[in-house]
Amino acid sequence: MHILFLGGTSFVGRHLAEAMIAAGHNVTFFNRGMTDGSLFASHVHLQVDRCGDVGALGTVDVDIVIDTSGYTPDSVRASALAVAGHASRYIFMSSIDVGATKFFAKKRSWTSRAPTASFPCAQG
Predict the structure, then answer these.
(1) Domain 2-92 maps to which CATH number in 3.40.1000.10, 3.40.50.720, 3.30.70.790, 1.10.10.10?
(2) Are 27 and 43 in contact (CB under 8 A)?
(3) Burial status of residue 92 (CB atoms within 10 A of its CB: 0-12, 13-18, 19 or more)
(4) What is the sign, positive or negative, of the torsion defined by CA atoms of 46, 47, 50, 52?
(5) pLDDT range class, residue 99, cuts 50, 70, 90
(6) Burial code of 34-71, b = ≥16 C-beta within 10 A, e = fewer?
(7) Per-residue pLDDT, 122
């Protein structure tokens, strides 16, 4: 299976990528290139910042996209639209509730009416 990771070189994405590679899958990475370039060096890396043009995502035909680096709904939406027709599945996972960040207080009470936080585009 050909898997495209959005992110995939740190945090949970790195472990998922290692597992997919160990299982024999073909893995391509789409990220900002912030992690050591020797990590997964034998695999294709597309270096693009998701805050800009994500059109490069539409140049790769894959079976599954695993998105571990979507910081805003707009960036996830843009990425999902870019791979439409080029992937059978799009999996988005977020770890926002794992711990407090500078954007959210430790004690939260979220409902459908709760205020949202603004994320600077390049955070992450």
Answers:
(1) 3.40.50.720
(2) yes
(3) middle
(4) negative
(5) low
(6) ebeeeebeeeebbebebbeebeebeebebebbbbbbbb
(7) 44
**The most confident of 18-22, 31-35, 67-71, 109-113, by mean pLDDT:** 18-22
Question: Of the segments 15-19, 43-47, 48-52, which one has the largest average pLDDT value?
Answer: 15-19
Reference 75, options 52, 105, 46, 104; nearest CA is 52
The identity of residue 53, as a single letter, is D
The phi and psi torsions of 92 (rounded to 5 degrees) equal -110, 130
pLDDT of residue 120: 55
Query: Residue 83, Cβ neighbours under 10 Å: how many?
Result: 24
Token pair, residue 29, equals: 């990475």
From the list 53, 48, 51, 11, the residue with the least C-alpha distance to 28 is 48
Structure-block tokens of residue 83 = 């791979």
**pTM (2 decimals)?**
0.75
